């Protein structure tokens, strides 16, 4: 199964033209160091992703500011080509003063809008490359308390630019009861601070199954996730991706253990097209309009 992502139903999900040409999907991961961003990315796509050749290899030394690292991979399944891009943001929240941690991230998102706008304005528009960020997974530390000032600041600065998807990192370090209470606190905080997170819709569906699926996905936000790129053996002899504890095994791909499967399903199968639509119709359109107004149009 190495490398298998499972977007088998994409021909129904994405327009025929983009299916043939192949298409881009770009996810950004943000959160403090050590919260499992890199591990989750590898777990999500079931393969290590590599930086594109034109970028310098990664170094182990810690950056002085929030860095931006790009990874991408081409996947083909059932005749559908997907170019999957990941924008990692090492260094976020790692400094004594993290006040401006959101700035380089905002700059990256806007820079990608600008690149798209520039291509749209060209005479020959047949080869537009879309590197706009379609979803931002924001990693919340599994503290069980409320959101930190840094979390709130980041989300408020970015919520009009990108589809924000909050996740509880390393949720295997909390009990189910703690997770349920923490989710509630987080959602209250988000509401209290008027933060707009991604809200999946099912407006063009009259299919009760699709509607229920979407409701089910939404009920899990913020997704409590566990990442692991290692196979381990369960007490009953199965080999699974998971994390081992003296008291047992947490299985990444078991929906009773964490929300990883739900998150992946939403990103890659059920809501990929919608995330792309919202990026274009809402976030990009707002940005473009503001920019044109500022330029005096
Ligand atoms: P990053 O700095 O956010 O990219 O975090 P990494 O992916 O490098 O992970 C940091 C450490 O946390 C590594 O030792 C991982 O094995 C571990 N880790 C990653 N995901 C999880 C998780 O879901 N649960 C637990 N308990 N540890 C994790
Ligand atoms: Mg990392």
Automatic annotation (TrEMBL):
Residue ranges the record marks as coiled coil:
none
Q: Which BP terms does GO give this entry?
A: cell division
Is Nucleotide-binding one of the keywords UniProt gives this record? yes
The source's domain of life comes to Eukaryota
Q: Where is each Septin-type G domain found?
A: 21-294
Asked whether the keyword Cell inner membrane is assigned, the reply is: no
Instruction: Give me the Gene Ontology terms describing cellular component.
Output: cell cortex; septin cytoskeleton
| Official protein name in the record | Cell division control/GTP binding protein
Q: Which organism encodes this protein?
A: Lobosporangium transversale
In terms of the whole protein, what range is present? 27 to 323 of 425
